Structure formats: C-alpha cells, structure tokens
Amino acid sequence: MKQETFNILSGVYAQLQEIAAQLYLAADQALQNDDFDDASLLQSRADKIYEEAENIEILISELEGE
Questions:
Q1: Spatial distance between the Cα atoms of 65 and 35, rounded to a whole number of angstroms
Q2: Which residues contact 28 (CB under 8 A, 6 or more apart)?
Q3: Which residues in 1-66 belong to E strands, given as ranges?
Q4: I need a labelling partner for 45 at 20 to 30 A (CA). Which of 23, 28, 31, 62 fits?
Q5: What is the pLDDT of residues 22-38, one digit of tens each?
Q6: What pTM does this model have?
Q7: CA proximity to 19, closest of 52, 56, 63, 41
Q8: What is the DSSP letter of 14?
Q9: Which residues are CB-contacts of 59 (< 8 A; sequence separation ≥ 6)?
C-alpha cells in the first residue's frame, strides 16, 4: 500500500472513531434525559460508524502485510 493511501485510511479511521464516540456520548445523554427514541437512533448510528471504522482498521492491517 502506498504511504498516501495508508495516511488517508488512517486519518479516516481516526475521524470515524471520534464521530462514533461523539454519537455514543450523545446517546448516553439522551438516555439520561429519557429520550429513548433519540438514544436508540444515536446508538444505532454510532454502532454503524464504529463498525465501518473497524472494517477500515482491518483493511489497513491486511494491506500493510502485502
């Protein structure tokens, strides 16, 4: 993998992790406010983004081995 590609993927991974963390925090806050629908929505979106970040991390690991 070219260094530029590695850098981009690594940066996107970090950004997605941050976004997921923000969504998880917002979900927790919504839950504390008894906003169950919002909490569920935020949690669901955070889970999807976190999953995509993990997929990118796996891709980076696999491509580094080439």
A1: 45
A2: 39
A3: none
A4: 62
A5: 999 999 999 999 999 99
A6: 0.89
A7: 52
A8: H
A9: 9
